[in-house]
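no rush on this but wanted to send it before i forget. theres a chain ive been looking at and ive put its sequence and its fold in token form underneath. please have a look and point out which stretches look like helix strand or loop to you. thanks a lot i owe you, the record is right below:
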Amino acid sequence: MTTVLIADDQPLQRFGFRMLLESQDDLTVLGEAANGAEAIRMTAELSPDVVLMDVRMPGLDGIEATRRIVATGDRTRVLILTTFDLDEYAYAGLRAGASGFLVKDAQPEELLSGIRSVASGDAVVAPSLTRRLLDAYARHLPTPGPDSDSDAPTAGHTDARLDALTEREREILTVVGRGWTNTEIATRLHLAESTVKTHVGRILAKTGSRDRIQAVILAYDTKLVEPS
């Protein structure tokens, strides 16, 4: 059973999420928080598997609440809900340690799948948001000058973090960085989805990446993927 805490300042939104989640045999709602401070307190008390976190709430917002929850080192993971026109919140959430981002108009199946994926240790980013989110991240990367001693890889050189990867693993890390899902990778590279999951797991282990989002950041940092 996956346990969930709903954090949203809109009572009707919380009610809708609760109805959806409790219609599933494997999901249960432990409680509801109306703001970030309540989310932090209730997470400490209830230790849910996943916090479904709204961003814009009165008082302490969802980004800061996420940062404080993640900082405790507890097992709880945070799935942030955002909107198409607020990409900067998704970027801030990534930096705060969220394990996933979905848009509020996602299909119910997407939300349920996202919660289950985050609870199992995977990371989720809405496909519609992925490219803009990652490009926003890339724009924050420092641009080394001509005299810089930057460790960023250049032509003919590889980043040490990639040395342990096989050619196939590097290929998969590249497309993960482009926002492809496991299903898309399996289809386009003619692999079984279970094989893709195995490759992704090995990539995370070999590179020391906490989750899929951190692997995406690695793909940008090492120039496997360039911002559009």
The chain has a mean pLDDT of 83. The radius of gyration is 18 Å. DSSP finds ten helices and six strands in the chain. Residues 2-136 form a domain with the Rossmann fold fold (CATH 3.40.50.2300).
